[in-house]
Design brief:
Oligomer: single chain
Helix content: 10-25%
Radius of gyration: 25 Å
Strand order of the largest sheet: 5-4-8-2-1-11
Structural class: alpha+beta
Number of strands: 12
Strand content: 35-45%
Order of helices and strands: HEEEEHEEEEEEHEE
Distance between the termini: 53 Å
Largest sheet: 6 strands, antiparallel
């Protein structure tokens, strides 16, 4: 009889231990799948505008253009109004930058942006992002000076596929500085220049808390060869999972 009681207690103990482990495993799995669900700040939308243009050079030709494909990326970081505590953004860090599916002959670079000038890719020394970039929390957002409003703001980046080709001509013709210009250098299928920009983004708070997520964007968006300029706005950001570090 005593043996059966001990056996029953052991079975009950094993059952509860198994149940506890199952609950813990479920919580870990849910966190790995969904990440943080109640952050003080979160990405509310990602907007991408894709096009192309020709950079004019002085030469004996009427048209002497270096063709580049340009993607303007807007990452909106908003305050969570349902978050109970008051938090302040200390920094936004973008790092671990990778270009996936890039063809061997393509040079693709990421740049910080300017409120005043469009062609930041012609000033690599001041605007090129090599390995990482930090936006410091401040009173207002100023992307050229790498600040972001400490209660939420807009981070803007420019991803440029450079040196796609040269177009030289003495013809009297109209040149449209948009995605249709790619046809001038024999690019007729958008799949020829498709790639993926991948990077980590971290939100650091003044309280010392840090959240880190990963963003991947297929570029260019739309079919700029036909449309000239293509636009997409993504608010369903289920693939952007933030975890506390």
């Amino acid at each position: 009889m005593g043996f059966n009681k001990r056996k029953l207690k052991m079975i009950i103990l094993i059952f509860f231990l198994t149940l506890i482990l199952a609950v813990i495993f479920s919580i870990i799995l849910k966190y790995n799948t969904e990440g943080e669900t109640n952050m003080p700040f979160a990405i509310s939308k990602i907007i991408v505008i894709s096009t192309a243009e020709g950079i004019d050079k002085e030469s004996e030709y009427k048209w002497d253009l270096d063709i580049v494909q340009v993607n303007d990326i807007y990452i909106e970081i908003d305050k969570n109004k349902n978050y109970s505590s008051t938090e302040i953004i200390d920094k936004i860090i973008i790092d671990n930058i990778k270009i996936k599916n890039k063809l061997n002959n393509q040079e693709i670079n990421l740049y910080k942006t300017s409120e005043e000038r469009k062609d930041v890719y012609n000033d690599k020394e001041n605007y090129l992002i090599n390995n990482s970039v930090e936006y410091i929390g401040a009173e207002k957002t100023d992307n050229e000076n790498l600040t972001i409003a400490n209660q939420g703001g807009l981070v803007t980046l420019k991803c440029v596929n450079e040196n796609l080709g040269k177009y030289q001509s003495n013809n009297d013709e109209e040149i449209r500085h948009d995605g249709t210009i790619l046809k001038k250098i024999g690019i007729n299928n958008i799949e020829e220049i498709k790639n993926k920009l991948n990077f980590d983004i971290s939100i650091l708070l003044k309280s010392g808390i840090k959240y880190k997520g990963n963003i991947e964007i297929e570029l260019p968006v739309g079919d700029i060869i036909k449309e000239g300029v293509s636009y997409t706005e993504n608010t369903e950001l289920k693939n952007v999972i933030f975890k506390r570090q």
